[in-house]
Design a protein that fits this description.
The chain is built from 9 helices and 18 strands. By secondary structure, it is an alpha/beta fold. α3 crosses α8. The protein is globular and about 65 Å long.
Length: 328
Amino acid sequence: MRKIRVIYTGGTIGMLPSEEGYAPAPNYLQNQLQKHYPGLSVLEYTPLLDSSEMTPALWNRIAADIAADYEDYDGFVLLHGTDTMAYTAAALSYMLENLGKPVVVTGSQIPWCEPGTDALEHVAAALALAAMPDFCEVAVVFAGLCLRGNRVRKIDCDGMAAFASPNYPVLGEWSEGRWQMLGVAASLPPALGVFRLQCVADKAKVVAAKLAPGFSAEWLAASLQGLDGVVLETFGAGNAGSQPALMAALFALAEKSLVVNCTPCLMGRVKMGRYAVSGSLAAMGVLDGADMTPEAALAKLYYVQAKHLDRAEQVALFLLPIMGDRTE
């Protein structure tokens, strides 16, 4: 038998109805899991967290808990709220360096306690994937799909198929109680180095900003001062217009910190220089986010900040594909 460690942080999956709506219920899900899977090792967080309460400091806590038990278990399942699941999965893909075991993140759209819940099937699929000895990466399991953790986006807040990896093929499909891994997107090979925990710089000043027609360039320029990193969701394939105030602010910021240009589109990639309005961003040192998700770009900025490198080394590390997070 493979030894699997379950870490339960909170989220819809273990909530119960209350007068104020669904709320975290201590010990409920842990008891249910151990009833269905006798002897299953479960670490339940206190207090349980709503997904919207997730922070980089909590990424560090989760990663540290995995690292503390790394030698004692063959795989890990993280039960997590869905709203910020993509951020956490991406962050773990960077923080768990030289990962040689499966780390599977899942949750549910409907609580375990309700009829028609997706929680039971998601847990069964996650445990099965975590027991696969040749799967060595962070993945999200949801609605019968295995998705690369740093390629995932939440695409539906109501439907059961809440997650997808629009810019990367599905790794596997769950059907009739077993996984069929798909050769079109082979999972990552086992790491050659020794496993190492790299916490993120949870105090770093990293923000995400999304441009929209009519936004105040002056306000945005003032807001970008003194930051360590910015994920800038521009227009289409990486275009940002030519407002002088914004361009001046981005130029000043890019001289000292990392500014990443990401597309807001679910599919496709940034092509800086394809249009004149994006060529100026490349010239001032704004980084090409390629086909990275904004969630992965944000998590990677926190990771890069923790390495204490000079700016040129930070740029090189960010642009380096890590755990399949971007396509060259």
